[in-house]
Amino acid sequence: MPGLSDVRAFHDDHPVVFDALLALALMPVVVFIPDSARAEPSSLSGAAAVVAVLTCAALAWRRRHPGAVLVATVVGAAAVILLDGGPSTISFVPFVALYSFAVAHGWLSTLVGFAASVVGVGTAVALATTPWPPDSRAFQHVSSFAVAAAVGMTVRARRAYVVAIEERAERAERTREQEAARRVAEERLRIARELHDVIAHRVAIVNVQASVARHLVLSDPPAALTAIEHVREAGKAILDELGEVLNVLRQHDDEVDPHTPAPGLDQLEHLVASFRAAGMSIRHSVSGSPRAIAGGADLVAYRVLQEALTNAHKHGTGTATMTICYEPTHVEIEVTNPVGDDETDHSGGTGFGLIGMRERVAAVGGQMAARHGADGRFEVSVRLPDRAGVHA
């Protein structure tokens, strides 16, 4: 024996078949079961039975054409009542049609449909009994049609609520997916930038010193051994720094080891010494009062200098010049190096190093320019705001 849940599932999966079966089920009810309110109850016969069957058949289209079905069932019910000479169970058919109409339309259209149903069926009952004064049975359908309209509007409101909840859930899910994708992209960019910053200049040192060793291995073995020692030290530094990055990536949150602070301008001397140890000639000067820059710009300053000196080491042909000027509200950094006959324009951001620098500087509200100077030198200039100085 199928339960209510089975009927509901069949109703949802096969609505057209369900409506057709409902129409077929109502046909014997309205034809053979008379209205108990009549003085002499009897089943329908003749033309009234035919019209009743056709009226029930209209319910098979109640979802696809609810308005037309409501009109057809009200007219059909009125015809059956007039042909049969009194109230009939055919009134249940426009009841079902009015419910379907209310589910498909708003409250104003439902109110019009309710009024039309009551007037149509009530007038037919009045004409079939005593036109004036109307028989009380002419008004007996008002409450039943009101229930049909109310239930239909309730179902419509509930379905609209469910749809709104589902749409809200879908939007929330899409938003979460988009946010997750954005964070993944940002994290990838951050990892790529960090790997480039901490490893690229070491790899450049390895490449330069390996080339030096290759040229000096026969003519000047001691110098070649010195270059190889620089390669070994740079390789060890690469492994150490890569291990630190990987340790951070293995963590489940953004916490970092408090005993290994992020590098800043306080490590400038160590940075310059590492390049000089690799054979690079650097002339640098500092003006103003050296300090850590607030707002995350201290790390940006260090990374910019690291990348600029790495580029100078790889592409430069002479002594690089580095200047740092501490102003009350900002810090200005400039790195220049001769590039000889190399006219390749690095300012357009075609390398990942310059792209990373621009992004880091922009992230803290700074400004950066990278260009070839008129004297054949490549210049990188950066202006970073100092939040502490701005609010002092």
Automatic annotation (TrEMBL):
<feature type="transmembrane region" description="Helical">
    <location>
        <begin position="20"/>
        <end position="37"/>
    </location>
</feature>
<dbReference type="Pfam" id="PF02518">
    <property type="entry name" value="HATPase_c"/>
</dbReference>
<keyword id="KW-0902">Two-component regulatory system</keyword>
<feature type="transmembrane region" description="Helical">
    <location>
        <begin position="95"/>
        <end position="118"/>
    </location>
</feature>
<dbReference type="GO" id="GO:0016301">
    <property type="term" value="F:kinase activity"/>
</dbReference>
<dbReference type="Pfam" id="PF23539">
    <property type="entry name" value="DUF7134"/>
</dbReference>
<feature type="transmembrane region" description="Helical">
    <location>
        <begin position="138"/>
        <end position="155"/>
    </location>
</feature>
<feature type="domain" description="Histidine kinase/HSP90-like ATPase">
    <location>
        <begin position="301"/>
        <end position="386"/>
    </location>
</feature>
<keyword id="KW-1133">Transmembrane helix</keyword>
<feature type="domain" description="Signal transduction histidine kinase subgroup 3 dimerisation and phosphoacceptor">
    <location>
        <begin position="187"/>
        <end position="253"/>
    </location>
</feature>
<dbReference type="InterPro" id="IPR036890">
    <property type="entry name" value="HATPase_C_sf"/>
</dbReference>
<protein>
    <recommendedName>
        <fullName>histidine kinase</fullName>
        <ecNumber>2.7.13.3</ecNumber>
    </recommendedName>
</protein>
<feature type="transmembrane region" description="Helical">
    <location>
        <begin position="44"/>
        <end position="61"/>
    </location>
</feature>
<keyword id="KW-0067">ATP-binding</keyword>
<keyword id="KW-0547">Nucleotide-binding</keyword>
<keyword id="KW-0418">Kinase</keyword>
<keyword id="KW-0808">Transferase</keyword>
<dbReference type="InterPro" id="IPR055558">
    <property type="entry name" value="DUF7134"/>
</dbReference>
<dbReference type="Pfam" id="PF07730">
    <property type="entry name" value="HisKA_3"/>
</dbReference>
<dbReference type="InterPro" id="IPR003594">
    <property type="entry name" value="HATPase_dom"/>
</dbReference>
<feature type="domain" description="DUF7134">
    <location>
        <begin position="8"/>
        <end position="158"/>
    </location>
</feature>
<dbReference type="InterPro" id="IPR011712">
    <property type="entry name" value="Sig_transdc_His_kin_sub3_dim/P"/>
</dbReference>
<keyword id="KW-0472">Membrane</keyword>
<keyword id="KW-0812">Transmembrane</keyword>
<dbReference type="InterPro" id="IPR050482">
    <property type="entry name" value="Sensor_HK_TwoCompSys"/>
</dbReference>
<keyword id="KW-0597">Phosphoprotein</keyword>
